[in-house]
Amino acid sequence: MASPDSNPTGARAAGTQTLARGLRALELVADSANGMTIQDVADELGVHRSIATRLLATVAEFRLINRGPDGRYRVAGGLAALAREVYAGLREQATPAMRRLANQLGASVALFVAEADDAVAVAVVEPTSTNVRLSFRQGGRHPLDCGAAGYALLAALPAQPAENPRVTEGRRRGYVITFGEVEPGFWGLGVPLTRAAGEPAACLTLISASQDLIESAPDAVLKVAAELSSYSM
Fold first, then answer.
1. Same domain, yes or no, for 91 and 65?
2. Is residue 104 domain-shared with residue 211, that is, in the same domain?
3. Residues 91, 71 share a domain
4. 101 and 198 belong to one structural domain
5. How many domains does the chain have?
6. 101-143, pLDDT tens digit by residue?
7. pTM (global) more than 0.85
8. pLDDT band at 32, cuts 50/70/90?
9. Residue 8 lies in a domain
């Protein structure tokens, strides 16, 4: 029987599987609040502990994760440095306008993009003077099928058969308002941005505990969203 080394197709398939497992291991560690052990990763991937050990060691060599004294792997500085470069142009251009909006309305403002089936926060700005703040983590994510950001991102995409009526209405009105779908007790206002062909869907989201603030904010957020729509990645 031919070995994988003598079978280019088999070697490529094996390499692709290893890469996919390594990326999945990185994703598992990054999404874990308290880190993951080798056995945790092995169980999630459905592989032997020895395979998980090799995968994690390889990812750690690139300083994307690090094994702590407790034996748990957590994200490391290399991943943070890499993450800073993702959407850097859009984030740097958008932040001043987002800061003005946050201070004008007294509410947190986040810029989201669509990645696969998730809405991912790539920039977050809080007002400098307010008694109530909701802190969002840059890089935080939630499913596209919920929340103002998720619906607004879907509204930025072409209409789909049997799509959620909230998405259809958001595309028609230019914004979506939700309550308590991602953060209990908080309102969200999502406005899709117009993006160039080939760029991921993006939206501007306002988050507040005040229903009155959210319901009075669409015009202000739409104005800033129109400004951000002119920026490229």
1. no
2. yes
3. no
4. yes
5. 2
6. 999 999 999 999 888 788 888 888 989 876 655 656 777 788 8
7. no
8. confident
9. yes
- Are 98 and 165 in the same domain? yes
Q: What is the per-residue pLDDT for 111?
A: 92
Range of the domain at 183: 86-228
Using a pLDDT cut of 90, give the percent of the chain over it: 47
In the numeric block, the tokens 């280019």 are attached to 8
